[in-house]
Amino acid sequence: MDWDDLRIFLAVAREDSLSGAGRRLGIDASTVGRRVARLEQALGAKLFDKTPQGYGLAPEGERLLPHAEAVELALSGARESLSGPGELTGQIRIGAPDGCANYLLPQVCARLCETHPELEIQIVALPRVFNLSKREADMAIAVSQPQAGRQVVQRLTDYRLHLAAHEDYLREHPPIRSRADLRGHRMIGYIADMIFDRELDYLAETGVDRAQLTSNSVSVQMQAIRAGAGLGIVHDFALPFCPGVRRILTAELSLTRSFWLIRHQDDRRSQRMNRLADALAQGIRAEVSRLQSILAIDETPAQEPT
Which InterPro entries does its entry note (predicted)? Predict the structure, then answer.
């Protein structure tokens, strides 16, 4: 048994399909299938069960999985020891909700890449929870603390959200002086049955029953607000990227949420992953603080009484 066979085994276990494993590894699905068959023959054990949903681990595959992951971790540690203490190298995949992925991670990762030229960073923006056990990402940023699983969880930072609208919309519609006035305005928010985390259910905070324009993407919601389509709850750290969008009812409606960094438990033994996690955490804290500080503390939003 060699590492290349185990690497293919891990890819199929994490992707649940030969084609998905092939895409991950950069080889064709038929080659993946032949290599899996070769490994099963060498071990004299069936590693996968073929189902309509894909390739699931057979009992023998379940027993092999932790050993294959241990080999993967050991090889990663060997590479770390040879790369030296200062330089971060190799590939890292970061999963994040699209608000963080669009408005925070590009700046944070740009600085990381400049400091560590041999580091390759992949940002995966998906409006759902990432499955780290299947290595959809090496580490993930979430908006709530997970309650189960073999994971290392680290609180990154708090961030603020407020109700906002474009100044053109505010000029053309009735004034908003209290939450009661919101019922006469078009609301923008999440598609209710696609909210993947309770922390994203902002609409209840406004007292409005439903939103007329919805998306599962924070960025789409923000673009709708910029287009003057209505009002929505937005991240304060996103506002510097959105000229003309103004916070409203700040004294009456202000939300605070948190970002959490989630890693696979086995990665605690990896010096490289620990250093990457520390660098990412420091970068996100600094970027949230920088962007939020751009908004004047004594800002008087449009449409509020002075």
Answer: LTTR, LysR_HTH_N, LysR_subst-bd, WH-like_DNA-bd_sf, WH_DNA-bd_sf
Q: Containing domain of residue 95, as a range? A: 90-157+258-292
**What is the rounded distance in angstroms from the CA atom of residue 210 to the CA atom of residue 193?**
12
Nearest CA to 134 out of 67, 35, 50, 56 is that of 56
Cβ-contact 303, 248 below 8 angstroms: yes
**Both 147 and 263 in a single domain?**
yes
Q: pTM (2 decimals)?
A: 0.71
Question: Are residue 276 and residue 150 in the same domain, yes or no?
Answer: yes
CATH number at residue 204: 3.40.190.10
Maximum C-alpha span of the chain: 78
Asked if residue 233 lies in contact with residue 162, where contact means CB atoms within 8 angstroms, the answer is yes
> pLDDT for 238-292, tens place per residue?
999 999 999 999 989 999 999 999 888 777 777 888 889 999 999 999 999 999 8
